[in-house]
Write a structure and sequence with these properties.
The protein has 296 residues and is an alpha/beta fold. It has two domains: 94 residues, 3-Layer(aba) Sandwich (Rossmann fold); 127 residues, NAD(P)-binding Rossmann-like Domain (Rossmann fold), CATH 3.40.50. Helices cover 40% and strands 17% of the residues. The chain has a six-stranded parallel sheet. Strands 3-2-4 form a three-stranded parallel sheet, with helices on both faces. A two-stranded antiparallel sheet has the order 9-10. Strand 9 and strand 10 form a beta hairpin. Helix 2 crosses helix 10. The two termini are 31 Å apart. Bound molecules: the ligand Nc1nc2c(c(=O)[nH]1)N[C@@H](CN(C=O)c1ccc(C(=O)N[C@@H](CCC(=O)O)C(=O)O)cc1)CN2. The ligand Nc1nc2c(c(=O)[nH]1)N[C@@H](CN(C=O)c1ccc(C(=O)N[C@@H](CCC(=O)O)C(=O)O)cc1)CN2 binds next to strand 4, helix 6 and helix 10.
Length: 296
């Protein structure tokens, strides 16, 4: 079997197209322009690239982008003051604090200072609780992107056996909640799971978000399963820096029914879903109907 490649780059372009169409209508019919504020603390090179990309794509879909760059030694109080200002700025519908934060900052405290209605990352404890209880919430971008690709590929996910490898608050746990919401039978596995290959072998859907380069091997995958690789790991191979996922792509693609590549799979969907969430937050703030197909 040769797996179908789920092209996240192309899918993300389609999502951005839907967002741009909706934004144009919002402007024309209501005179409203959604605004996204992105806060970067420090000079982490990967974070700088992601933040630049977020700003560029925000403008490309017709939204306003507000970038705030703070030095790595910024006191936490200053960041909290900025978040308070953005919470009270009616031109800002979405707020995102790029992670990771410098070590002297308390990530939970900072995230929970964001107005939950503007929390386009879906990391605020209120949104976590709403998602966990099946209520309307802001949904974390990476899991939302995975869900969109799975729904597009399968249609209904009802009754499928899904294994999520990884239990992080930003990917593993919300991913499991979303799959449960679509009536999958969900197992959350992790680095300490006993007989992990056997657990993965039972799954119709495998979401790998464990942060270990190429850990999931082809012989762990059930024939025809769908494999979503969330990992973004930079490793050195043959003297070159390369990007690999949490799945050993070649061996998995030989047995899977469908698979996301790295790069070009889940990554681009993360930013597309951030734009979708900002649009959703703007519609909710203005009491307008939410865009269809862009939320969970
Ligand atoms: N506040 C947040 N911080 C972080 C998040 C997040 O969702 N919210 N996620 C990651 C980083 N991230 C977005 O912020 C992100 C990661 C990767 C990609 C992406 O498109 N990756 C490309 C490869 C890019 C490369 O060469 O490095 C791909 O997979 O094709 C987009 C966004 C951590 N922080």
């Amino acid at each position: 079997m040769v797996a179908e490649i789920i092209d996240g780059k192309a899918f993300a372009a389609t999502v951005r197209g839907h967002v741009a169409d909706h934004v144009a209508r919002l402007k024309e019919e209501h005179g409203i322009t959604p605004g996204l504020a992105v806060v970067l603390v420090g000079e982490d090179p990967a974070s700088q690239v992601y933040v630049r990309s977020k700003g560029k794509q925000t403008v490309e879909v017709g939204m306003n982008s507000y970038e705030h760059k703070l030095s790595a030694d910024t006191p936490q109080k200053d960041l909290l003051d900025l978040i308070d200002k953005l919470n009270n700025d009616s031109a800002v519908h979405g707020i995102l604090v790029q992670l990771p934060l410098p070590r002297h900052m308390n990530e939970d405290l900072v995230i929970n200072a964001i107005d939950p209605a503007k929390d386009v990352d879906g990391f605020h404890i209120s949104n976590v609780g709403l998602l966990g209880t099946g209520q309307k919430s802001m949904v974390p971008c990476t899991p939302l992107g995975c869900l969109m690709m799975l729904r597009d590929h399968h249609g209904s996910l009802s009754g499928k056996d899904a294994v999520v490898i990884g239990r992080s608050n930003i990917v593993g746990k919300p991913m499991a909640q979303l799959l449960l919401g679509d009536s999958c039978t969900v197992t959350i596995a992790h680095s300490r799971t006993k007989d992990l290959p056997d657990v993965v072998r039972r799954a119709d859907i495998v979401v790998a978000a464990v942060g270990r380069p190429e850990m999931v091997q082809g012989d762990w995958i059930k024939e025809g399963a769908t494999v979503i690789d969330v990992g973004i790991n930079r490793i050195e191979r043959d003297g070159k820096n390369v990007l690999v996922g949490d799945v050993h792509y070649e061996s998995a693609a030989a047995v899977a029914g469908a698979i996301t590549p790295v790069p070009g799979g889940v990554g681009p969907m993360t930013i597309a879903c951030l734009l979708a969430n900002t649009l959703t937050a703007c519609c909710r703030a203005n009491g307008l109907p939410e865009p269809e197909g862009l939320t969970a």
